[in-house]
Amino acid sequence: MTESPASSQAPDDETVAAPAPLLTLRDGLTPVIDTDEALAAYAAQLAVGTGPVAIDAERASGYRYSARAYLVQLRREGAGTALVDPIGLDMAPLVAALEGTEWILHAATQDLACLAELGLHPASLFDTELAGRLLGYPRVGLATLVEELLGQRMRKEHSAADWSRRPLPESWLEYAALDVEVLVELRALMATALDDAGKSDWAHQEFEHLLGFKPTVRVDPWRRTSQMHRVRSRHGLAAVKLLWEARNEIAAERDVTPGKIIPDSAIVEAAIAMPQDRAALLALKGFHGRGAERYSTRWIAAIREAAALPEAELPPRTLRGDGPPVPRAWAEKDPVAARRLTIARDAIAGLGEQVHMPVEQLLTPDFLRRVLWTPPRTRQPEELLAAVGEQLSAYGARPWQIELTGPVLRDAIIAGDVAPPEPTA
């Protein structure tokens, strides 16, 4: 006898849970604000709204050289959602409306710099990604947190889109608006969870620290060229440097991502082969397309300049940093420091489990290594604890981190000085 669909259902304990409902815009999609008049009108609404302001920005990473914001999304109770095309607009009304408000962002370090370019600076903020880390969530993407805490799914199909495109498709705009749709609600739930966990002050210190965030300026960024390890000679390294700098200058002039001019693989191939004429250059792997041909004279000039550099002007193979060596070298270079590091890492891992937090959130790994490589001289416990705290503070650790991890590092320093017993025969 053939079973009916109803009689063939799986037992309750095997039933697959229904997917969470899809998050939708409660107020519908609003027109993009792209005139000074429309922005001033929304800014007036924003100024009389209540509570914190959810804010997000979309860039065109992978398409443009600049990291500027091509769309800014805002939402506040009493003002609704706005999608602002900031290109060419007078942002002064928005700056004034946001003065003194708390911003809610997800992964604030991704957006603060491009918002600052527009003159937008938060007086205070709440970062839902950082709050998720403090609360010990294993995954802290916005879509994951929304599903975990609010029971709704988010679309993420346009996260890598070219937001410099005009006009922006309606589906992209809906995706962008959804990124601020639930941030106010999410912030309220996470603030309560932080308070219940006794971590509200920790979060406040972290959010205050973010207000001074500035993107890291890399030393010798050309050294991040993919596959550069294949280049063996120092003249070849010079060619990588000069080709990278020429490409970067062109990309900045044209406001396109450097890889669209020529790929990293082409730079590496040229640095290995060191061609001296256009025909040999364009025969190399990766040197095809308009960027390779259009700027071939500049590529050849960079290679010839690198080949002619005297030994004293060639770049070193590696940069000497101001920090400690890589941990794998500690046992050979300083066995006592290596013991400190092993003891501290184990203790920090246990502390992370105790407070339900990733160890890198407890203390920046670089700070830990610096203290353990060059610890304070004193071994008197109270003096050592105070000195470790001063050292961590100078590196940028927050007070809550110092309070939690300072005793761990002090104990590791003292214990590391004691040589382990010789193994018995």
UniProtKB/TrEMBL annotation:
InterPro entries: 3'-5'_exonuclease_dom, Exo_C, HRDC-like_sf, HRDC_dom, HRDC_dom_sf, RNase_D-like, RNaseH-like_sf, RNaseH_sf. Pfam families: DNA_pol_A_exo1 (PF01612), DNA_pol_A_exoN (PF18305), HRDC (PF00570). Residues 233-313 form the HRDC domain. One of its GO terms (biological process) is nucleobase-containing compound metabolic process. GO terms for molecular function: 3'-5' exonuclease activity; nucleic acid binding; nucleotide binding. This is Ribonuclease D. It comes from Nocardioides jejuensis.
